[in-house]
Write a structure and sequence with these properties.
Layout (H helix, E strand, L loop, with lengths): L5 E6 L2 E6 L11 H16 L5 E6 L10 H6 L8 H10 L3 H7 L5 E5 L3 E2 L1 H7 L3 E5 L3 E3 L13 H9 L1 H10 L2 E3 H6 L5 E3 L4 H13 L3 H13 L5 H16 L2 H12 L9
Parallel strand pairs: 2-3, 3-4, 4-6, 5-7, 6-9
Antiparallel strand pairs: 1-2, 7-8
Helix pairs in contact: 1-4, 5-6, 6-7, 10-11
Length: about 270
């Protein structure tokens, strides 16, 4: 049996998942790899004690996207007739944005190296992107004669705007971490040897807050991207009523008034 694609570790309320195929630059081609990411999201969603997820890569790359050798050989998810390829996309890689983008837990992408094609789109499924100074980014599908098949045409414009997303998608050109920061593709750049510690520290700061409030807040941010203001206000009122009746809300208020550190119980 092959080794799992993801190395998963936990520190308190923070789960870290590291893509572990450094020999292929963590390329996403095998259906089993993609379904590991989907299964991880389902596990995290069911565990209310998890408050943040960090996604990163082993080796020199974050994720090199699809395996070009498999494209040439018509292997992996690229195998079969056009109908079979369509179904393969729908049942494998397209499950990742549905699972990861809609996950209620805040997700941090710690981008340790190149994030190319589907790798770039994977970062856009996350809530916060922190880049190593060695990170590179490309929406490179056009360079190999295909289109963004994993939701990139929806994700990337929402992160950097339609004009810059069009520039990246039409040229397939690579940008460095500095340009990514200028375009708001990433929130921060940190030295490569500090990336993981920085991402973990941020995740722990997030995890220091009540689980229910974190998950409801993320859901509001996601819903707000496609709802009218009046509809979002209605949803916000309902979520707020739920939050006010949690034990953790009362603990937060009492700790604030008592000038002490709160102790949350995810209730």
């Amino acid at each position: 049996m092959s080794q799992p694609f993801l190395i998963i570790e936990r520190d308190g309320g923070v789960v870290t998942a590291r893509m572990n195929r450094p020999e292929t630059r963590n390329a996403l081609t095998e259906p089993a790899q993609m379904l590991e990411l989907v299964d991880l999201c389902h596990q995290v969603r069911r565990d209310s004690s998890i408050k943040a997820l960090v996604l990163t890569g082993e080796g020199s790359a974050f994720c090199a996207g699809g395996n070009v050798k498999d494209m040439r050989d018509r292997g992996g998810i690229f195998a079969g007739s056009p109908f079979e390829v369509r179904e393969s996309y729908r049942n494998t890689i397209q499950q990742i944005p549905l699972a990861l983008y809609e996950l209620d837990v805040p997700v941090i992408a710690a981008i340790n190296g190149p994030a190319i094609g589907a790798g770039l789109d994977l970062t856009c499924m996350c809530d916060i992107r922190i880049a190593s100074d060695k990170a590179l980014f490309a929406e490179s599908f056009v360079k190999v004669g295909i289109v963004p098949g994993d939701g990139g045409a929806w994700l990337l414009p929402r992160v950097i705007g339609m004009q810059r997303a069009s520039l990246m998608a039409f040229t397939g050109d690579t940008i460095d971490a500095a340009k990514a920061l200028e375009w708001s593709l990433v929130a921060e750049i940190v030295p490569a040897d500090q990336l993981q510690a920085h991402a973990q520290a941020l995740a722990q700061r997030i995890a220091g807050n009540p689980s229910h409030a974190l998950r409801l807040t993320k859901r509001l941010l996601r819903e707000g991207q496609h709802m009218r203001l009046d509809s979002l206000l209605e949803l916000s009122a309902a979520y707020q009523a739920l939050a006010h009746h949690t034990d953790d809300h009362l603990e937060a208020v009492n700790a604030f008034l008592d000038k002490r550190k709160p102790v949350y119980k995810d209730r």
